[in-house]
Amino acid sequence: MTSKPNWWQQLCNEQRTQATSYEEQAFWQGLSTLFDQQIQRQKQLQGQIDGQLWDHQSW
Q: Residue ranges per domain, the chain?
C-alpha cells in the first residue's frame, strides 16, 4: 500500500521483526497480507454497492 501504515500493519511489522522463528515471521507476514487483502475487497465491494445505489441510470 502506498499510504502510511495502519496500526495493524505496524503491529504485524513489529511482531515479525521481533519473531524468533521463521514460523512466527511467516505468521505475522501472512496476517498482514490477509488484512491488506480484506481491506482491498471491502473497498471494492463498497464501490460496487455505491455504484448500484447512486447510478440513477440503473434504476
A: 7-54
Alpha helices in the chain (DSSP H): 7-18, 22-54
Predicted confidence (pLDDT) per residue in 26-36, tens digit: 999 999 999 88
In degrees to the nearest 10, what's the CA dihedral of 9, 1, 37, 8?
10
Rg, the chain, Cα only: 17
Instruction: Output DSSP code: residue 58.
Output: G
The torsion angles phi and psi of 22, rounded to 5 degrees, stand at -65, -35
Nearest by Cα to 8 from 30, 39, 35: 35
Give the pTM: 0.64
